[in-house]
Amino acid sequence: MQMAKFFGNLNLVVGVGFALAIAVMLAFAPTLPVDVNSVFRWLHVFFGILWIGLLYYLNFVQVPTMPAIPAEQKGAITGHIAPKVFFYFRYAALLTVLTGLTIAWVNGYLVQALTFAGTGSIALIGVGMWLALVMAFNVWFIIWPAQKKILGIVEATAEEKAAAAPRALFASRTNTLLSIAMLYCMVSANLG
């Protein structure tokens, strides 16, 4: 297979990347456990990077740059790039939350973390979980409905689009704010 053809196919690259990760897991299986916990931790980190990476792309690059883009070129972003970004953004949020909840459930601290009944690392991961749940709520129930109007995916009047933009920005910037503390919780808790 030609290298250009291989690297030109994102689905193929990601599939081979996952196959490589599985091969690494299996190669180290005699010394490191490959179990539900380790697989879901790996997926949690993968989806979390995708989610927060897209959040930061939107807040640090796309949104601040849009006013400087000539009107005749904005359609390329709003019609082609942004819908794809928001697809991966919202499903990465969902899968990050689901894999995180699965990790807590498999390890027996889900209820303790969500109710702050635990101490130390469990309490810290509980804070991170609640921050992530608020952020995922914002993605699915504030940002995405507003963006569907802004991007013309659903019918909306000019007034509805204008009203949707500040809502989406507020929720997105709230997520950026919350993500900083949430990431601290995620990497510092170190629960087995």
UniProtKB/TrEMBL annotation:
The keyword Thylakoid does not apply. Residues 113-189 form the Urate oxidase N-terminal domain. It holds the Pfam family Urate_ox_N. It comes from the Bacteria. This is Membrane protein. The chain crosses the membrane at residues 12-33, 39-58, 88-110, 122-143. It comes from Novosphingobium colocasiae. Keywords: Membrane, Transmembrane, Transmembrane helix.
